[in-house]
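Exercise 3.2. Students should predict the tertiary structure of the chain below and write it as structure tokens, then compare their answer with the key that follows.

Predict this chain's 3D structure.
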Amino acid sequence: MQPKQFYFKIKILFFALLMGQTMFAAVAYFIFGMQSEIHSDENNMLVYVSVFLSMSAIGASYMLKPKLIETALTKNSLDDKLKTYTTACLVTWALLEGANMANVVIFIVTANKIPLVFFLAILLVYIPTRPDLRKISADLKLDRDEEKELGVN
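Answer key:
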């Protein structure tokens, strides 16, 4: 992976995942959000599942990314570091997006808007993970030559 192309590719991945989950939620809300809310015990159970999935995904993403970035620090070449960093980001984003997709599906099934609140909460955790060259450089503890190769000013 070319260091100059790395940043472009990881930004595209981030925004594609962001747009996918946001568009899915928007379409689901406009199609199913206008229906009256259904109250039953099985629907309430799914809301609890939504809460559990959301909190678990947020917690796991905060715990896994630093551990995966630590493995990148052991790599010698910049290319290997960037590949491992990409993997760490993708794992984090996949956890958060998976929980968000589940929240939208639970909203569709139950017509209860509580999962959408957790969707927004996860979105507030997801958005700050946007790739930034300076943050990547700091996370990977790059030296000046590696920063120059990556394109950090």
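Discussion points: The helical segments are 3-32, 41-73, 78-110, 114-126, 133-140, 144-150. The chain has six helices and no strands.
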